[in-house]
Amino acid sequence: MSTLALGSLIPWLSVLSVETIQMSDCAIELHVSSTQPTAACPLCAQPSGAVHSCYVRRLADLPWAGIPVVIHLEVRKLFCRNDACPRRIFTERLPQLTAPYRRQTQRLWEQQRHLALAHGGEAGARTALQQGAPASAKTLVRRICHAPLSPTPTPRCLGIDDWALRKGQSYGTILVDLERHRPIDLLPDRSAETLAQWLRTHPGVEIITRDRAGDYADGARQGAPEAVQVADRFHLVQNAHQVLHRLLERHSRGMREAARTVNQQHTQIDPAHVTQAVVDGEISPSPPAALAAASDGSPPARPLSKYQQHQQARRARRYALYCEVQRLRAAGGGIRYIARQLHIHRTTVLRFLAETFPEQAARSKRRSKLDPHLPYLQAQLRAGQDNAMQLWRELRDAHGYRGSRALVSRWVAAHRALCPPRPASRPRPGAPPQSPAPKLPPRFKTPSVRSAAWLLTADTASLDEDQAQFVEYLSVRFTLRGEAIRIFGAGFWRKYRRLYLEQR
Ligand SMILES: [Zn+2]
User: Fold this and answer.
1) pLDDT tens, 219-272?
2) Distance 77 CA to ligand 1 centre (A)
3) Which residues surround ligand 1, an ion (CB under 5 A)?
4) How far does residue 42's CA lie from ligand 1's centre (Å)?
5) CA of 35 to the centre of ligand 1 (A)
6) What is the DSSP string of 261-272?
7) What is the CA(74)–ligand 1 centre distance, in A?
8) Domain boundaries, the chain
9) How far, in Å, CA of 161 to CA of 208, rounded?
């Protein structure tokens, strides 16, 4: 190979000589050695030609036509002859080729960094393997981490905020160039001194936006006294929002009252609401047991428990599916066809082809710590004692029960139907007899403080009828907005709302 052709492949021939090149299908190995007559000591920079010893470094290089290249580089160790230098022996540096301790050439290192920046870790690793210079994903990510940062000019508008190394425990400070929208530095703490020091070493900041903490104000005053300090919009809105939260927390009773007032508008049972509640499984599709029993003259039973309602709804869904299977079968559908149509398994279709509706088998009974105490619990429920906490204490203290309280609570909840019905409250003389109304879940639930704050600051046009009433009631009856105005000064509330909406 001519020196010219080799020079285009190996650009370091001015300081290296190529001894041998071994080529195979899977690797190209170059044996090279340094030709520098002298080398400078890395500490004192004094050149030295006094050789101590030699050793061979193994460096990966850019592949040639997809074939990996390995350079076996013979480097020398030299004596430093400067008596004042603490280093006695040093290894010669070849900065054109590679950096100390590195196991790849500089140009391969840079190519890996470009690959990592363009593709990221895993995808970059796959590309690198395909190109003949394999590198792991972690290696590529390390290339990004070790890449030198481009110098950042001192910003004109500087944003300062704290950030958590560990939330609630240790915080640092982040500095952001607000015109270029880029973080430019991280400070190890959030003290005034650190910030002032940074500002002194980076003169030229004209505007500083910050939260309303005193330390940053002090730091900015000390480090850049001529800069204008601005409380930023984010923190103003955040502070206002915190005040609103505190206000609402004080008015939790008022919020419940407001929600109740909204619900009282709907005391007439809204058929759409009932239908929706049935669909949602919140109430049973069958008429409540209390109503059904009252109509046929038998003693009224207790309304179904949540679990029983859930069971009933489940059975209704299975029954509807059974009817559908029967209908499709009557229309001549095959088992596979029916299974495909209804998105169920063929085994289920076969089961539903039976003449009678296959009721779901009861769950196999598991042994429970409660088993020995069931007769006692049943007797207590029949006597009207259904206080689970009380029953658990009795079992624990007098009957040697060692299980959990939750187990007792669950059993009592599932078997409350054993209790005799409670006597209805005595009607007032002259009042019309009241029929027991089905208990529906409230149409408008009391919102959390967070949701209520959202409602209060939302655009009125985006609220539904109930939400608007709730906000109106809170605003008028409890003068929430009035309080906020008193705290922040007239006009703030309107401005806050606007800022808040923009923020969102
Ligand atoms: Zn030296």
Assistant:
1) 999 999 999 998 887 787 778 778 778 878 877 887 888 888 888 776 544 444
2) 12
3) 41, 43-44, 80, 82, 85, 87
4) 7
5) 20
6) HHHHTT-SPPHH
7) 21
8) 3-104, 110-146, 157-231, 238-266+443-503, 272-291+300-359+371-418
9) 11
Residues 286-299 as b/e (b if ≥16 CB within 10 A, e otherwise) read eebbbeebeeeeee
Ligand 1 center to 75 CA (angstroms): 18
The pTM for the full model equals 0.42
157-231 CATH choice from 3.30.420.10, 3.40.30.10, 3.20.20.70, 3.40.50.150: 3.30.420.10
CA distances in angstroms from 381 to 244, 309, 414, listed in the order given: 48, 20, 11
Q: CB neighbours of 150 closer than 8 A, spacing ≥ 6?
A: none
Please give the distance, rounded to the nearest whole angstrom, from the Cα atom of residue 48 to the centre of ligand 1. 9
Q: Can you list the positions of beta strands (E) in 42-156?
A: 47-48, 51-64, 67-79, 89-91
CA of 18 to the centre of ligand 1 (A): 29
Please state whether beta strands 16-23 and 28-34 pair in parallel, antiparallel, or not at all (unpaired): antiparallel
Mean pLDDT, the chain, integer: 81
**Exposure class string for 390-422: b at 16+ Cβ within 10 A, else e:** ebbebbeeeeebebeeebbeebbeeeeebbeee
Measured in Å, residue 83 CA sits from the centre of ligand 1 at: 8
Q: Ligand 1: distance of its center to the CA of 44 in Å?
A: 4
Residue carrying the six token digits 């609103």: 244
